[in-house]
Specification:
6% strand, three-stranded mixed beta sheet, 20 helices, MgtE N-terminal fold, 6 strands, CBS-domain, elongated
Length: 432
């Protein structure tokens, strides 16, 4: 048989039987498959690329020259382009972009990138995929050539990339070599939509013993995987970022960030905080005459403000943590506020008794002790309600409940604390 005739038969096979041809390619070493595909004309392989298992496609895609990368991208559905495109650095993206048609380039510019807090943002296409009609021997060869040396679960997809189930690596190792993958495929694996929120997925993970999470789209097409440790790490990083956002620090800033970068991120919030500080100071100014007449009030102001601030911070932390873990939703708002009110009343009375006793011993004025005791209870109750309300209100407004919550709360508790203490002192000034 002449070489040209052999090539013609190859071309006809790949054009007329693309599913069978793609499965034959998947059995080859990745480097060998890549070499063969690179050498072929586009007409010969254009039906093959969309049918390749996504892990094989991802591995081969990295080996392709830029013009071939552009060809592959133009042949794939949009939902499958995103992970491939995102795997390229900016320089390579620019070079590949030059080989794309205007229509495809426009589609690339509007790729459906996933929201940062969605599970889709964590997708990795590096799953090892199996076909149901593969033998165990063929599947083991696929595992042997995989880049991930810590494979624990393999996913089974059909020729249309529909997820059929999964195979534990231990089950694969113990099965007979001539047994079919379909015979050891298990159903019931937790499949996650790429658009789902990471917090929602976290709750489901707590109830499942999973090693890898299969990510699918609305049509149940397999998109990739997320390892639980990767997801948990992302959740931790987001939680750490929340701590920074509470005090007006950008999540992009680190301890090693350039000084000017940190200034640009922090200064606007410090200016806002300055305005709120003047608001709290203006409350003190309203009672200037009372303070001038009874100077002991000025000494005790920080005590009331500090306790109300701590009370509000405790309520804020508990509420934000429960929102982050989806332990509560907005429908629990009344219960949360009622609970924090009860807690703050009990704590307020206990702290007020201690404070009143200490002030009585210090000032020898029973009236001042009574005033600060009443002020302590009222300011702590108001602060607790504010601490629980701030994240709930921000969530209701569809804003990040962590965004500068501490700055907002500090303003509220200072104003409430100063007004409660000085207002009560003014009303009961005859006791001083």
């Amino acid at each position: 048989m002449t070489q040209s005739l052999a090539e013609t038969l190859h071309a006809q096979f790949f054009q007329n039987h693309p599913k069978d041809a793609s499965m034959q390619l998947e059995k080859l070493d990745v480097n060998e498959a890549a070499k063969w595909l690179i050498e072929q004309k586009e007409d010969t392989t254009k039906k093959i690329w969309p049918l390749l298992a996504k892990d094989i496609l991802f591995s081969i895609f990295k080996m392709l020259p830029n013009d071939k990368k552009a060809m592959v991208i133009s042949l794939l559905p949009l939902n499958e382009i995103t992970p491939l495109w995102d795997s390229l650095d900016e320089t390579t993206q620019g070079q590949v972009h030059n080989h794309l048609s205007q229509e495809i380039a426009a589609a690339i510019a509007n790729l459906p990138h996933y929201a940062p807090d969605s599970i889709g943002a964590l997708i990795s296409p590096r799953a090892v995929l199996l076909r149901p009609n593969m033998t165990v021997e063929e599947a083991l060869k696929r595992v042997k050539h995989a880049q991930d040396r810590h494979i624990r679960v393999l996913f089974v997809v059909d020729g249309n990339n529909k997820l059929l189930g999964h195979v534990e690596i231990s089950a694969l190792a113990l099965a007979d070599e001539d047994e079919k993958v379909s015979d050891i495929t298990r159903l019931g694996h937790l499949n996650i939509l790429a658009t789902e929120n990471q917090s929602d997925v976290m709750n489901r993970l707590n109830k499942a013993d999973l090693r890898e999470i299969a990510i699918i789209d609305e049509d149940e097409n397999f998109l990739g995987i997320v390892k639980p440790e990767q997801f948990i790490q992302a959740t931790k990083e987001d939680a750490v970022a929340d701590i920074g956002r509470m005090v007006g620090v950008s999540k992009e800033e680190t301890a090693l960030s350039p000084a000017w970068f940190s200034v640009k991120k922090r200064l606007p919030w410090l200016q806002i905080n300055l305005v709120t500080a003047f608001m709290a100071a203006s409350v003190v100014g309203l009672f200037e005459n009372t303070i001038a007449q009874f100077t002991a009030l000025a000494v005790l102001l920080p005590v009331v403000a500090g306790q109300s601030g701590n009370t509000g911070a405790q309520a804020l932390a508990v509420t934000m943590r429960s929102l982050a873990l989806n332990e509560i939703t907005l429908k629990h708002s009344f219960f949360v506020l009622f609970k924090e009110t009860k807690v703050s009343i009990v704590n307020g009375i206990a702290v007020a008794l201690t404070t009143a006793l200490a002030v009585g011993i210090w000032s020898k004025q029973p009236g001042l002790s009574l005033i600060i005791g009443i002020s302590m209870v009222s300011s702590m109750v108001l602060a607790a309600i504010a601490g629980a309300s701030v994240p709930l209100v921000l969530t209701k407004l569809k804003q990040d409940p962590a965004q500068s919550a501490s700055i907002i709360l500090t303003t509220i508790t200072d104003i409430f604390g100063f007004f409660a203490f000085l207002g009560i002192a003014t009303a009961f000034s005859w006791m001083l």
